[in-house]
TrEMBL record:
Residues 1-20 form the signal peptide. Keywords: Glycoprotein, Repeat, Signal. Gene3D superfamilies: Integrin alpha, N-terminal (2.130.10.130). InterPro entries: FG-GAP (IPR013517), Int_alpha_beta-p (IPR013519), Integrin_alpha_N (IPR028994). It holds the Pfam family FG-GAP. SMART domains: Int_alpha. PANTHER family: GAMMA TUBULIN COMPLEX COMPONENT C-TERMINAL DOMAIN-CONTAINING PROTEIN, UNNAMED PRODUCT. It comes from Actinomadura livida. This is Esterase.
Length: 472
């Protein structure tokens, strides 16, 4: 397998170094799609926090397919899932810039372990994912997975007669067993019973979430969906058992019971995440970063949906103008640019789904686009007052203009922690891992990973994507 180790990484990133000295469990993955690898600008790298050290993955490393090339953007999307069902987490990496934007994806099984299956390289056509590779498809723009299944979004795929519907979008659902692709289902809006129709610019699959809930389920964002004359209003699909493409629900802001209204540029579904607990219905967090609120353009909002296998209902709608939410609606905040849903449990309270919300355009203390992460507990009595920034005690004390903290968020390491990326920090990037309780005022010392400092790999946009292992 092509995991590579770097005790102290020096730019440019070398393609391939020695393997890990000992087995360790993946805790978090931090993407740097702008990294220069072997002199190839923007080839991209993914840095895996494994035990107490970092492992660096690139294309062309031992076992990882293809070679680093300028503009590949390896690591533009990352996801963690137990794809091969052996109890250890695997890493899924999107490479949407590969082959003139045709794209690739890789499944790196059991990062950090010496006895591991060979990585799997996925691509359209000969790569086993169905369809064919074309410039601009963006295969790998979004990735997700669950046991036996890998989901890959290609939102730039052209569909329709003569492929006249440019950037309509497609999602590849790949059955993966024994380290090989054993079946492919292609999902788009002309699949039987799907809400909506294939249209130019829909960008179906620009965001993805998936998991083994009460049954295998995928959530697909379609942020470019036009609703009537409202361009890029957006919508989301919830699909049960995606390998056989059973459509369950298509939801937008004009759906019954959903807050707001479909408006041009809302981009409902630009980010999606989902969580489930046996005692709770499935919860789906949907980011709407283009939502205008009052006079504030692109202030953003987040809608949390409940899904019980039969119907969808709104559980919570939140933005910075809601009572209790820190901050105010301001143009360009992008509240909901990223979302992460997870189940937080404690000995003193029943389990409840919680949602981390990235607002990377938020100005903090006069620092433009420093960014903030908000937290909402989605229980019987929702709590929406959670927030942290890079200036929060325990976060390293280094908020900077343009850091865009919250551009990416994920739950993990552990079930009650989150990791948040700040890819613009100091022109190199940063990421922070913290217990969930820090968002609600509990003093903590976060794991503060500033690119190029204290053994953290040097970066270009370190933190542009993040994923975490929620086990343990």
């Amino acid at each position: 397998m092509g995991v590579v180790a770097a005790a102290a990484l020096i730019v440019p990133v070398p393609a391939g170094t020695a393997g890990a000295a000992a087995d360790c469990d993946l805790a978090a993955a931090v993407g740097d799609p702008a990294a220069t690898v072997d002199g190839k600008a923007g080839a991209g790298a993914v840095h895996v926090r494994c035990g107490d050290r970092w492992l660096t993955l690139t294309q062309g490393a031992a076992g990882i397919g293809d070679e680093p090339e300028a503009g590949d953007s390896f690591g533009a999307a990352v996801a963690v899932a137990d794809v091969n069902g052996n109890g250890a987490k695997d890493l899924i990496v999107g490479v949407p810039g590969e082959n003139a934007g045709g794209g690739l994806a890789h499944v790196v099984f059991d990062p950090g372990r010496d006895a591991r299956p060979a990585p799997l390289t996925l691509g359209q056509g000969a790569g086993g994912a169905g369809d064919r590779t074309e410039a601009g498809d963006g295969f790998g723009t979004a990735v997700s997975g669950m046991r036996g299944t890998v989901l890959v979004g290609a939102p730039g795929e052209d569909l329709g007669d003569g492929e006249s519907k440019t950037d309509a979008g497609l999602v590849h659902v790949l059955g993966v067993y024994g380290g090989e692709v054993e079946g492919v289902t292609l999902l788009h809006q002309d699949v039987q019973d799907f809400a909506g129709t294939v249209e130019a610019g829909d960008r179906f699959g620009a965001s993805l979430a998936g998991g083994d809930f009460d049954k295998p389920t995928a959530v697909i964002g379609v942020p470019g969906e036009d609703v009537g004359t409202k361009k890029d209003a957006g919508m989301v699909h919830i699909v049960e058992d995606p390998q056989v493409a059973i459509e369950s629900a298509g939801i937008g802001q004009d759906s019954a019971g959903i807050s707001g209204a479909s408006e041009a540029g809302d981009r409902f579904g630009a980010s999606v995440s989902a969580a489930w607990h046996p005692a709770l219905p499935m919860r789906v967090a949907v980011g709407v970063p283009g939502e205008d609120i009052g006079d504030a353009s692109d202030a953003g909002m987040v809608t949390v949906l409940g899904y019980d296998g039969r119907q969808v209902s709104e559980v919570l709608a939140v933005h910075q103008g809601v009572a209790g939410v820190p901050g105010a609606n301001e143009s360009g905040d992008g509240f909901g640019t990223s979302v992460a849903a997870g189940v937080v449990e404690s000995a003193s309270a029943p389990p409840e789904v919680s949602v981390a919300i990235g607002s990377p355009g938020e100005d903090v203390g006069g620092l433009a686009d420093a960014g903030r992460v908000h937290g909402a507990q989605v229980g019987s009595a929702p709590r929406v007052d959670g927030t942290v920034s890079q200036g929060t005690d325990g976060f390293g004390g280094e908020p900077l203009a343009g850091a865009r903290f919250g551009a990416a968020v994920a739950f993990g390491p552990g079930a009650a922690g989150i990791v948040a990326g700040a890819p613009g920090h100091d022109g190199k990037g940063a990421a922070h891992a913290t217990p969930w309780r820090a968002l609600f005022g509990t003093p903590v010392v976060a794991d503060n990973w500033f690119a190029g400092q204290d053994g953290v790999p040097t970066g270009s946009r370190f933190g542009a994507s993040v994923a975490g292992n929620t086990a343990g």
